[in-house]
Amino acid sequence: MFLRSLATAACCTLLATASLAQMGGAAQASPPATADVSLNGKAVTIHYNSPRLKGRTIGGDIVPYGEVWRTGANPATTLVTPTNLKIGTLDVPAGTYTLFTLPNKDQWVFIVSKKTGEWGIPYPEGNDLGRTPMTSKPVGSSQENMSISFENTKGSTTELHVKWGTVDQYVTVKAQ
Question: Which domain, by its residues, includes 22?
């Protein structure tokens, strides 16, 4: 009986260790992150995982130009909004969406997908709510960790920034 209990305990420990390793119990290469902002008293949130450059280049080794990117790593990047938004030229009703970008050398395109719950790849063709151009901003120094942030918030308006390496692409967001 003692040996059976010992064997069961050893198996449980092994399974728990393997599960933690898969879930990122150790430091993750692309840890989870959140960007949030209050627009007219309503919390708008983006959940994403933040990849690292690790000596790679945007437009070359990672995030190839002309290919849709999940705008993060691991699970798909998710936007949750309790209020209708105007993102760039795009009307986004209250709800949950998956975010993608289409990087190009000079200008990126911001994509809001109606399909949610996917890992982030492959890109779910045909499920776009819509697309809108982003604006490029000069960057002072290279940023190792990709980030999504809300900046220059005033009342019902903010800017949603995607920064990584020497890239700072943003789009205006307005609560309606």
Answer: 1-28
Tokens of 107: 């200008």
Residues 89 and 148 in one domain: yes
Q: Which phi and psi angles does 10 have, rounded to 5°?
A: -65, -40
| Interstrand relation of 58-59 and 42-49 (parallel, antiparallel or unpaired) | unpaired
* 119/165 Cα distance (integer angstroms): 24
Query: Residue holding tokens 């003692």?
Result: 2
**Pairing relationship of beta strands 157-165 and 95-102 according to DSSP bridges:** unpaired
Whether the full predicted model's pTM is greater than 0.90, yes or no, is no
Structure tokens at 115: 């399909």
Q: Where are the strands (E) in 54-166, listed by range?
A: 58-59, 62-64, 77-81, 85-87, 90-92, 95-102, 109-113, 128-133, 135-136, 143-154, 157-165
Place of tokens 């975010």: 99
Q: How would residue 60 be classed by pLDDT, with cut points 50, 70 and 90?
A: confident
Q: How many domains does the chain have?
A: 2
Distance (Å, whole) CA 129 – CA 111: 8
Task: Report the chain's C-alpha Rg in angstroms.
Answer: 19
